[in-house]
Structure formats: structure tokens, C-alpha cells
Inverse folding.
């Protein structure tokens, strides 16, 4: 199975900050990667698919990049509602595998 | 819009079988990949497997020997059975729809709210 490694595991930031989360795949996955946001007690929400395509309705402050093994999720200017846990997911092959998550907390 | 709703017992005894159903409303169950994803308390997400509307399935190797998924298109429902459960299977179980959103972009675009299942005697 492809292993997905996210970094950092946790991150403290302030409203207005620019934040970057990284996801590394144990082998090349082209651009078959998605990013999901999860708030406590809620289901994950799709933010980005195809590594860089913003899901409809997701604010443009979210962006994704990368291809092959290294990917990033960037939030250009943190808003209060962005404090959550973020997961990457590879859908290059089965079994689908998630990163371990990055918890974004308020500084 | 399409909504998913999980249902099933919230408590299962060790060595027994966990059974959950996901009901699809507001849209068609046909021609999509329907997955189950779980999340142990305080931990990350784990993909369990999928079933296609044609009943084709694919399960995670780590759970394959204990998992069975089925689909009832007439009822717009799909189900998960996980046998011989232990405390390690205690988790929130989500159902989710995966579909192709772009030429090279599959994703889980719709999720159920999740249902907590505790394995305990």
C-alpha cells in the first residue's frame, strides 16, 4: 500500500497567516491526490482534488500543488473557520490511503 | 441534493458482526463508487472499501478477510458487514460517494454524518 506522510502533524497559526501543509507519497501517484478538511464531530469535507483543482464552493484562499510524490495544501490567509484537521488522500491505486492528518490550531 | 445517512447498532459485542447501512437520498445510487471509511476515536481516517452499483467490490487488504459489502439499488442503500470484531474496530463509520470530478480527479464528494460503533461486551 502507498504510504502518505503529512507534515507537520500539528500547527499553530494566527488569523491572517499563510499556512502550508505537506503530503509525501511513498511512490509516485501522478496528481491523484485530494485534500479534506475535518472539524470536530463532523465528516470530512472535500477541498481539493486532482492535487490542485478547487472543489466547487471552497474559498479561493485554499490552493493545492504538486505531482508525483510531493504535494502541498496552502491557505493564503487563515480565517477563524479554517481551524480544523486536514487530511490528504491518494487515489492513485487501491487501497486508498490517507495521511495521518495535520491539526491546525489557533495560536 | 444528494445526502447519505448511516444507520445501525451503536454497540456490538466482541467476536460478533458489525452491520451498517447507508441510505442514499436526493439522487441516484447507480453508476457511482460507494465507500466506507472509519475513524477510531482521536485517530485518523481509514478507507475500508468500496462497492460499485454493479456490485463490484474492492476491500482494503487489512480488513478484506472480515469485510463484506452489498448494495440494494431498489432501496438506494448499500451495506457494510465486518465480522469477528474486536475493540480495535471501535470507530466512527462514514459512508461516502466517490466519483470522477475531472479527467484526472476522483474524490469523495459527499459524506454521511458518520455513526459511532463501539465494540464492547
Amino acid at each position: 500500500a502507498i504510504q502518505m506522510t503529512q507534515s507537520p502533524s500539528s500547527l499553530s497559526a494566527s488569523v491572517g497567516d499563510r499556512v502550508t501543509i505537506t503530503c509525501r507519497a511513498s511512490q509516485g501517484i501522478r496528481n491523484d491526490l485530494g485534500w479534506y478538511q475535518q472539524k470536530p464531530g463532523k465528516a470530512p469535507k472535500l477541498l481539493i482534488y486532482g492535487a490542485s483543482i478547487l472543489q466547487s464552493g471552497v474559498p479561493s484562499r485554499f490552493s493545492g500543488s504538486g505531482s508525483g510524490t510531493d504535494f502541498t495544501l496552502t491557505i493564503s490567509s487563515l480565517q477563524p473557520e479554517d481551524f480544523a484537521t486536514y487530511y490528504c488522500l491518494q487515489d492513485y491505486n487501491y487501497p486508498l490511503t490517507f495521511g495521518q492528518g495535520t491539526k491546525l490550531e489557533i495560536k | 441534493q444528494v445526502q447519505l445517512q448511516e444507520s445501525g447498532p451503536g454497540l456490538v459485542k466482541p467476536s460478533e458482526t458489525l452491520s451498517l447501512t447507508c441510505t442514499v437520498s436526493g439522487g441516484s445510487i447507480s453508476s457511482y463508487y460507494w465507500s466506507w471509511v472509519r475513524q477510531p476515536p482521536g485517530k485518523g481516517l481509514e478507507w475500508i472499501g468500496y462497492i460499485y452499483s454493479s456490485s463490484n467490490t474492492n476491500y482494503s487488504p487489512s480488513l478484506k478477510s472480515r469485510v463484506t459489502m452489498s448494495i440494494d439499488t431498489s432501496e438506494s442503500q448499500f451495506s457494510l458487514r465486518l465480522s469477528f470484531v474486536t475493540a480495535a474496530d471501535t470507530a466512527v463509520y462514514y459512508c461516502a460517494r466517490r466519483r470522477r470530478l475531472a479527467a484526472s480527479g476522483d474524490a469523495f464528494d459527499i459524506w454521511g454524518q458518520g455513526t459511532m460503533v463501539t465494540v464492547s461486551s
User: Anything to note?
Assistant: Chain B has a mean pLDDT of 96. Chain B touches chain A through 26 residues (CB under 8 Å).
